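Quick start: what a row looks like.
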Amino acid sequence: MLIPQRGPLVLLLAVLATVMVPAHAAAQDVPNPPWPKACPLKLGLLVDRSDSMGARFDDVREATRNVIDALRDKRSEITVVGFGTVAGSVGSAVDVSDEDARRRLKDDVDDLETGGDVGGATNWEAALSAVRPLDLDVVVLITDGVPTVHGNPPQQDGEPALAAAKTAADQLKSAGTRVVAVGIDLAAGGEENLAAVTGPVAGQDHFTGGNASLLRQLYDIVAASCGVAVADLPTPEPAVFPWKEVLLGLLALLLLVGVIALVRNRGRVRTTPHPVRKSVPVKTSPDRIGHQDLVQDLRGRPRQDQPAQDHAPHGPTGSHDGVQKMPDRQAEPPREKPRRSMSLDFLSDPSHPEKKDQP
């Protein structure tokens, strides 16, 4: 039986170690690019929306809004990604020097909640991979320091989740993007997780603290990225009443009311108004007209039932109010009784025999 020599075996193991270890080390040791120190800046904010961020998420929203305001005079672009189990874009490459675009982005940040559409786990890999195509200058990871899932579809495990996040971060670094992390109220081992993804230098590669220090740390990152002092950054904007939105809403309401009124008027049946008839006084006639009245009407004389004209005292000349009185028409002769064509007196004569004597 031949016993193999130990030399070749040791050499083989050494070669395998030389091939495998540098590949693993290369994935871990990609250096973080330096600060750009110039603006305009292309900045990415990766906001942890996992369930564990619930107690501090109000401060995270406010700090994110203030960072957006801090770059409004630099014509910079900001991308906001919210992540939990998966990642979801809130705003991509928004020019924050544009007032309307900046206000819309801040409104979208205000609408963010933990969990919801992105789920309640923590997937650093998904957030870092989401901004890879944008060629950003600086990416800031805001988190509580514990990745729990990775991959798509997400797989829940601890160590592989951190390793996948390191790989995604190294891809960004290799493309020239500086990766920075801000840890909030980190648990034990949280800072080591941030250092593994960003770099070893605290206060440069990664920042830690509580809610109270979050905004100051984000302002330090923005100032270092632009190469200016923190005091040179503009303060957050005060709340502004949205006059434009209110006026547009009122105009839309008035337009809607006008359309409704027009539709209702068209639906009504048009009717032709009847002309107003003038009332004609009806001349009443006397209950009974005698023969004499009829004759007087035909001759133009007033009837007996008509009111007599007023007579004023006559002057010595027999005129009425100085006007000579016209003579009356000739009086009508007395009418004769109608005559019968045959006398009927015999009907009342007693001497007339009613019938002939009988022989």
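That is the whole record. The beta strands are 42-48, 77-83, 87-95, 138-143, 149-150, 155-156, 178-184, 206-209. The mean pLDDT is 81.
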